[in-house]
Design goal:
Layout: H1 25-30, H2 32-46, H3 56-75, H4 85-107, H5 109-112, H6 114-117, H7 126-152, H8 165-188, H9 192-205, H10 219-226, H11 228-241, H12 247-271, H13 275-278
Helix pairs in contact: 2-7, 3-4, 3-7, 4-7, 4-8, 4-9, 4-11, 7-8, 8-11, 8-12, 11-12
């Protein structure tokens, strides 16, 4: 009696492909549609059941600018490098708002998608990256008010404005790098969700958002220059207002930003395989 033949089955196990720094760029590219999906999902969640929708991207920095202008520009008489304080503060606030919101959302991106981490494989790094990408939409929307302010105060754009994307890219890399650290750490230590708002608040006053770097001198000036946001914001203002560039501070900001990004990426990749078990 002839035995029935049992067909052979082939089981394929999907494993992450690794390249430089423990990550494969080709793999990330193959998951680009998923990155778009995560980003679009976060946009819908962020403005779900809101009356004003995307207008909140303008309201937050605009109201903050008005308060800062009344308090620091009016009462305290904070220097603003010869430009109207409203323009000075808002040109920094749009970048600061993007950075702070990116940190807030990217730090909790793994926890908010815990159900996905335990079910299917995909590059986990897409989650904090998508949070930082979404903020770019708000940045562009908020920049429309800056254009209005420049026209109102008769400040003409120069060729320097073409370099504005450079500090924005650096800010994206910096937010992503710190977001890698915080999102990975938040899986093991839930204290991160409490520490992030405090960290962001302290960093606001340690960055030249409401004051120019020109008023800081001595050893404090050296410490301020080590904060990459200092060089990033200073040069964004310079590019917008057409006052040239501070290449020294931009170089320091670039080096520190790339270092934070690479180390954050390495930290994230080191603990990525443990996310599904710990979360």
């Amino acid at each position: 009696m002839e035995r029935a033949r049992v067909p052979h089955t082939i089981t394929r196990i999907s494993r992450p492909r690794r390249g430089a720094l423990g990550i494969s760029l080709s793999e990330l590219w193959s998951y680009r549609d998923l990155l778009y999906f995560f980003a679009w999902k976060e946009v819908k969640i962020r403005y779900k059941q809101t009356v004003l929708g995307g207008a909140w991207a303008v309201i937050q920095p605009l109201v903050t600018m008005i308060v800062f202008t009344l308090v620091f520009g009016g009462l305290v008489k904070m220097p603003s490098d010869g430009v109207p304080y409203a323009v000075f503060s808002y040109s920094g606030l749009i970048l600061w708002t993007y950075f702070s919101m990116s940190l807030a959302h990217s730090s909790g991106s793994l926890l908010s998608n815990a159900n996905l981490l335990s079910k299917i494989y995909f590059p986990r790094i897409l989650l904090p990256l998508s949070s930082c990408l979404v903020g770019l939409i708000d940045y562009v929307i908020a920049s429309s008010i800056l254009v209005v302010l420049l026209v109102y105060f008769h400040i003409s754009a120069t060729a320097w404005i073409l370099l504005v994307p450079l500090p924005l890219v650096l800010c994206f890399l910096l937010a992503s790098g710190i977001g890698f650290w915080l999102s990975a750490a938040s899986v093991k230590y839930r204290d991160v969700s409490y520490a992030v708002p405090f960290f962001v608040q302290v960093l606001l006053f340690a960055s030249p958002v409401i004051y120019p770097v020109s008023i800081v001198s001595g050893r404090y000036s050296t410490l301020l220059s080590l904060n990459p946001l200092s060089g990033i914001m200073t040069n964004q203002r310079a590019f917008i207002l057409g006052s040239g560039a501070d290449w020294g501070s931009l170089a320091i900001a670039t080096i520190v930003t790339l270092l934070v990004f690479v180390l954050g990426l390495m930290y994230f990749q080191r603990y990525e395989k443990e996310f599904a078990d710990v979360i």
